[in-house]
Structure formats: C-alpha cells, structure tokens
Amino acid sequence: MSLAIDSHRRRRKIVLGTVTVLLHLLVLNWFSGQLGRPREDAVPREASSVLAELIEVPPDPPPQAQPAPPRPALEPPPLPRLAPEPVEVAQRDDDAPPAAGPADGAGPASAAVADPAPALDAAGQGSAAVAAADVQSAQAGSPAQQASEPAPAKPAPEARRYKLDLPPPADITLDVARTDANGTRWSGNTLLSWTLTPTSYRIRIETGITIVFAHVNLLTLTSEGAVGEEGFMPSLMTEKRRGRSMTATHFNRKDGRLSFSASEANYPLVWGAQDKASVPLQLTAIARGDPQQLSGNIDILVGEDRDASVFSFKVLGQEELDTRMGRIATWHLARPPKPGAYNSRLDLWLAPDYGWVPVQIRNLEASGAVTTQTVNNIVMKNSGS
User: Fold this and answer.
1) Strand-strand pairing, 370-380 and 247-252
2) Hey, what domains does the chain have and what are their CATH numbers?
3) In the predicted model, what is the mean pLDDT of residues 227-234?
4) Given this model, what pLDDT does residue 15 score?
5) pTM to 2 decimals?
6) CA–CA gap between residue 2 and residue 8 (Å, rounded)
C-alpha cells in the first residue's frame, strides 16, 4: 500500500512541474512580444479643432499734441559778489637772461634775489583785487557787450580800516641768502630806505648779489605818494630789473583807478591799497597804530608791475631771531599760498623793540627755492631827509 502512495505522489510532482514550466514559457513569450512596441495611450485622444476668426481692429486715434509746459520765470541776476574769484594773470615776458632759475612769484623786497637776473618777482600773481576782479569781469562781458559799450564799474566794497602810525624814516640793510630749487646758493644784500614829510613819502629798495669781488645790482624799486589816514598812499611805483625795461604802476587817486604801464589791466582803488615796495611798511604802520589789530586776516590790495592782488596776512606767533644785531624779539606774519591766486609763501618778522619795522623777510616759491633777508643794521634818519 505504501508503494501505491509513493507512486501517486511522484506523478503529482511531475504534473505540477510540467504545468509550472509551461506557465513560465507563456510569460516569457508575452514579454518578448511587448519589448520594442510603442506605448499607446489607454484612452485615444480626440483630434481638437481651433476656430480662428479675423477681427478688424480700428487704428488708434492720433495722439493729441500736449500743451507745452509754461516756462519757469527767469531768476533775477545775482547780486555783485564782494569776494571775487581768482582771475588768470598774463605770464610776464622773460626777456632777462636766465641765471639761477626764475622765481614763481615773490613778495615785496623779499624776492629781490629770486634769481640773479630778473630777481624779485611779484608776490601774489594771479588773484585780482577784492573789487577789481568784479569790475574787470563786468567790463569784459559778452562779445556783444564789448561791441557796444563796457558795463558800468561796480562800486568797490568797503575795506577793513586800521588805526595807523607811520614808522619814522630809516635805512635798513639786510643780508640776502638764496637757495635755488637745484641747490645753487647765492648771497647779497638789500637796502630798504624811506623818507617822510608831513604830506608825502618816498621808499627805495635796492637789491644785489656778490659775484666773486663784484656787486651786481639786480633790482631797484621806488614808491612815492602821499601820507594820510590810509597810511602810505602810493601814487607811483617804478620797477627796474637788470636786463629789463622799467615798468610803472599808477595809483590815480583822482579817478580812483589802478593801472599799469606793462599791461592793459586796471582796477578800482580801495582803502589802504599799496604797492609791493610799501606793503611791508604799511604792516609796520598797522602794528604801531595798535598791535591788537594784528588779528584775523589782514587783507591789503597790492599793485605790482603788471597786475594787482590781495595779500592776506595772518599772525603766526611771537619768535626770537638770531641776527648780526643779536637776538631780536619779533612777531611772525605770513601770507600762505592761495590756490588759483598766488603760489608762493611770504613771511615777515616785525620787531616791536625797533618800532615794528621788518627785520626778516622770507619768500618760499612753489619750485622750492627760498630767499631769506635778515637785518644787519638799522639807521634812523631825520624826517624830511
């Protein structure tokens, strides 16, 4: 009986194995038929149709011209400025033979050895006077104005006024030491001399250098005019440099104009206007009048050989100087460079114990050249001499 049961089980296993193999063959055959066939959507899409209709659109109406905005009202012309902008100054002709290099703009007296030939360039080249620049620009105007008639001159602004005490006549001699920008050194001397009468004055400055055993005069400045409530009131300044023609600067008090023989420039005179020979002694007169006036900016209109500019001085402090006359107590004033106006620096040392006269003057040029004049003797003179 057990043999029959075993035989039945073997037959059943054979049948099940045969069925399993057949099922696998059917599945493999179906997969092989599906490989590589494109996929089809389960639900076929219906073709959609689009209905387009052309509609005529009327053209846009032409834009209407917009009314022009009203023009703004013209602004009133500006009022005259009391402090003018710097103006350009014509370059001076270098008709003197070159020697140690030209100065770029030296101060009064101090630049006497600015270079051994031309020497003593003017100190504030470039800036016009406080009122002068306004007047000059107004007179220049447009070409149409120039063709018709010049614009009327504007009134000059009120200048700062000082209590003044003129220094008594004297002769001051100063040692001159100059170092050019290239290091070349020069030495010489300057004589600053002035006389006074009850109504007039005369100033003379002579500067020269020593070459071997010879003394060469480089420059002579003279200033003359009246004396009054403005202190020194120049009427004429002359300047003679070695190798150049003499030039003259005119202070026409009657017409109230400042003019030059070496240029067409002209300016209105303001209170206390000076030339570059008289300005150091005008500072002396201000200090003698009241030392408290040496404060803030001390602005002085200075006429030079071709133009005019405003020198602005400030007090830097009190110093002691070593001189051939010994140690001297001084007040140090300086006119620093002013962009667009003058490029050099001018320093003066006034000595209270010697009537506030200048005992040292130094000019530092933009090129780096330095000219220093230091007192070696002061001789007082009788008035009217």
Assistant:
1) unpaired
2) 132-147+155-380 (2.40.360)
3) 97
4) 73
5) 0.63
6) 10
